[in-house]
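Aim 2 progress update. The chain analyzed this quarter is reproduced below.
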Amino acid sequence: MFSEELNNKNYDLYMEKVFMKWRFIISLTLLSAALILLNGCGSGEAENNQSLEEIRSERGVPVQIEVVQPRSFEKYLSYFSKLAGIKEATKGAMVGGKIQKIRNRIGDYVNEGSVVVEFPTDVPSMQYEQAKTAYENAKRNYERMKALLAAGETSQSNYDAVEMQYIVAKRNFESVKQVLFIDAPFSGTIIDIKVNEGDYVKNEAYLFTIAQLQKMRAKIWVSEKEISFFKKGMKAVADIGGKEFTGTVAEISMAIDPYKQAFFVGVEFDNSKRELKSGVTADIKVLVYSNPKAIVIQRNLISSDSQGYFVYLEKDNTAHKRYLTTGQESGIDIEVLSGLQEGDRLITGGAAQLEDGIKVNVIK
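Predicted structure tokens:
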């Protein structure tokens, strides 16, 4: 309902502007026609013949005005980027072979170290059983020697030798296990599984992707000119399918990427409701500047000469040239830092025919 009412208001405002524009054009046309008629009627009488400049000087150049009022001004910079979990990783196979077992499904939450994908343990090249047996034997010897050392029945050197054997056997067995039993590098949600049980895969083939989804992150690439606008904590808005999600700037790179020739900025969004999905492309806008009480005018109203930018103001039916200092720009709007103030009567129509000090006739 609100959206429909807003659209109706925008339409009415648009039609009002169109009406004002055409009324101004008609008024100007009628005035020009009157001038031509006056000139034509007086062609035989030199004393009554007036030039266009004389009539304008007498009646004034028709203009439209707008009273300057401060308003909120915001500048956004827009980028496209893909969303990902606040922490996300894809695990790959460390050895080629057959997928023996997949312990989880997409959407499962797993703890760090939990095995997700298994390869067979009977692969001759891996010598899993040999490594396991060596580890178990070394562990038993180590625990026995540890008890003997505590009882004073063996020397420190004997204990140190057995301990070293245990450490080496344990490390070898864990290395083999890491190759055959692919585990989660951190606690999170399985968001993608790229293989099936029974598949034969090559070394380094992607197996599954895990992510922490309570927050989502997007990496945007910013030009050398734009990076100075960014600060941590700035508001960011992601538009996905017409729905907006609010986030903040969380990270700003300190060095330019040599390949992209741009700086990356990390933007984070709360995802406690799990509405945002990894891999989705979003239109991301970052609010880099705001002024709640700015003087703002449209860029087409500003002219320039050798002294700078200027506009015309109307006061006592006279056009006054006013030079401006401008600030930030956003779309068709330009922030005015000096030269205009609240209550000034800015000439918005007919300015092309004006000079400083010329008489004007405000068309309402």
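Helices lie at 2-41, 52-59, 128-151, 156-180. The mean pLDDT is 88. These observations will guide the mutagenesis experiments scheduled for the next reporting period.
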